[in-house]
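Problem: given the chain below (385 residues), write out its structure.
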Amino acid sequence: MQHTKVLAQNDTDGSTTSALLTKFSIKLLTGGVVLLKATVGDKPDSLSFVLDTGSGGISLDSATVDYLQLPAVESDRTIRGIAGIRKVKFVRNLTLHLPGLETENLDFHINDYEILTNVYGVRIDGIIGYSFLSRYIVKIDYDVNMLEVWTQGTIKYPRQGYLMKPVINSIPILNATIKDGVAVDGSFYFDTGAGLCLLMSEDFANDKKVIKKGRKMTLTQAEGLGGKKTMVVTTVKQVKFGPYKFRKVPAHIFKDEFNVTAYPVLGGLLGNDLFRRFNLVLNYSKKEIHLLPNTHFNEAFDYSYTGMGIYFINGDIVVEDVLAGSPAEQAGIKVGDKILAIDKNFTNNIQSYKNLLQTTGSKLNLVIIREGQPLTISLKVKSIL
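Solution.
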């Protein structure tokens, strides 16, 4: 692998001009979550990482650490997620190898990402967050699914778009206005690792009276650190940050038992189903994030609802959750059903199946295996609106 060598140049004011180090393609998962390939240390195995501004460090999956036989060190540090809090171990002083770039002296904390692997149908070996992003300027182009890494220094942003000045200690925090019952100003995590639009704590939503009285609430479930978490999903009339306004935005509300959203300081997080609609420049050293609307800006939001949780487990796409009263329960789908096909799609690709299940109002024919026998079930995809 060849690695870029950069000679620094000085501007007339004495500052250093940023220079391109490398660029490579990325893959998008459900909700716009960014997946990229890398290796670590002297191990040749290609690993899959999520690029996550919502991570205050950098991490590896526990099974990956065991497989690569990396030395783990105990620590007193704890991390919090929507479904749990836990003490973590570290792999210290490890080098991350991206295409055309080496980043040395990184301390990876160890976590269990099995549930993310099952959700996305691709192995998630780790998450790349602040420990990496704070060393560079990172550009994400969602029009062509490319990522660029630049050295820190003076950089010219696109003329169009908007330059945000978030608070960045480890996770960027930006100001936004949520308008539904009333217009509420708040601070929110900028979280590209969250494949949704808006996540709020119950305390924030209730105390600020964010949601209009009588707004339809639908029981759903999300996955994160520690496992699964039951919550409700609804819509808010408008989400605004900078000059950008989005209408009828899906909003998840949950009981934040571990205070992941840092209420009352913060109201929750804004996720990548919003930010994938912009091409981004992440400039942590200057505490700047540039947003440029892209070709996805006006795409419709996902309002679909089935009440069914599907996961990729041991090569099969399996129904693991069926919520009471949901379209899935009404259709007769049961926990343990294995999905062979949806509307003649036999690819066994969970991303493809999830895309089909997001077609609100459609009636889908599912071919499943139940107790060893094939069965066809008709499922109506409903809406949260």
